Amino acid sequence: MIPLEKYAIYLVTDEPSRYKGDFVEAVEEAIDGGVTLVQYRDTESSGRIMYERAIRLRDMLVSRDIPLIINNYADLALAVEADGIHVGQSDMPVEVVRRIAGSKITVGLSITNMEEARTIQSRSEIDYVGIGPVFDATKTKADAAPGMGLEGFKQIRHELSDLPAIAIGGITLELAQSIISAGADGLAIVSAFSKAESPRKVAERFAAYYRAGTAT
Length: 216
Fold this sequence. Notes:
The chain is an alpha/beta fold.
């Protein structure tokens, strides 16, 4: 399973076309700045292109001891020997993902409200949760749920206190420390990297804010 500290600066990839240069090179630059985990999310590419891109990511990440999580596609995760799979509420049920993938792969689940947190059917099959959107996330995901705010995050985090919790949705440098103080084990960041002139500098700043937030 993925160690807790690897969730700290959690890069969720934006659509590849939104990056200014080569997609994998931009991710690599962010890792050089302090990203600790990468979730490959891509809704615009064909299956073949996703496979080839995931292979490139895996080969680059494995040499740096950075976990790779595949969004949604259990078959792709197994094909590229990724470290984990992340699914949402409308994706394949986590118990089915676990049955397909086996016990050695990490499985994460998105939680968007308290009802979802209280009605998880297969809690023992989940290794961590992504809670959000905490703030407005519609710029990177048009069908994102409304932002729950810090208080909403705190309530869900308390409900799921036995699982690592990653905050996602509208996370900026200015908000990073407040989210960590609210109980987040990691910060999932999307557009702050894809829009950055220097993904490395953005990662360095998030890593510094994370260290400061966990030290208080």
